[in-house]
Amino acid sequence: MKKIATSVFVVGTMAFMAISGSATAATASSSFQVNLTIQGECKVQSASNVDFGSRGVIDANIDTTSTIGVQCTNSTPYTVALSAGAGTGATVGARKMTSAANDTVGYALYRDASRTQVWGVTQNVDTQAGTGNGAVQSYTAYGRVSAQTTPAQGAYSDLVAVTITY
Questions:
Q1: What is the CATH number of domain 42-165?
Q2: Is 136 in contact with 90 (CB distance < 8 Å)?
Q3: Which of 5, 10, 68, 131 is most buried (most C-beta within 10 Å)?
Q4: Is the pLDDT of residue 22 over 80?
Q5: Which pLDDT score is estimated for 21?
Q6: Which of 89, 166, 83, 158 is nearest to 126 (CA)?
């Protein structure tokens, strides 16, 4: 009988020690800083092609548009510029699409729907200004092939660079 009583006493003592040991546990704490620096930045998120389609004789204006998506840090001022393109002798006022045979078709890109404000590269003159809001902001480039002497048939293209200055 003494063995049973001793066993119960030992088990009870161990249980009490386990409970009292956890009740008197100590803690320590500290803290740390979390940091992030947001810098002014802009990105061209998208730029759709300017596609004038398929035509025969160019005896009237051919109009189309492109959408340019710009994303800048909130409150960052910026301007969007469009290059003259890769056409030989092209300027922002007289861009040129070129064929494989080096024939050209003249065209222009504008900042306004009435197609009176050429879109170019000179800051505060022919660029599009904006202020970032953190989200993608869309701008429309209005393209026009004006009536002109029609060159030889074939595929004509140009490559225009989009540049954001911020």
A1: 2.60.40.1090
A2: no
A3: 68
A4: no
A5: 52
A6: 83
pTM of the entire predicted model: 0.81
What whole-number distance in Å separates Cα of residue 96 and Cα of residue 3?
106
User: Under 8 Å CB-to-CB from 160, ≥6 apart: which residues?
Assistant: 50, 82, 83, 84, 85, 95, 109
* 3-state secondary structure (DSSP) of residue 87: coil
Domain spans, the chain: 42-165
Confidence of residue 87 (pLDDT cuts 50, 70, 90): confident
The rounded distance, in Å, linking the Cα atoms of 74 and 158 is: 33
Phi, psi for 34 (deg, rounded to 5): -120, 125
**Strand order across the 136-145 sheet:** 42-47, 62-72, 136-145, 104-110, 95-98
Q: Name the token pair of 9.
A: 């006493």
Residue 10: pLDDT over 90? no
Question: What is the three-class DSSP state of 126?
Answer: coil
In the chain, % of residues over pLDDT 70:
86
Alpha carbons 142 and 111: distance in angstroms, whole number = 6
Tell me what the pLDDT averaged over the chain comes to: 90
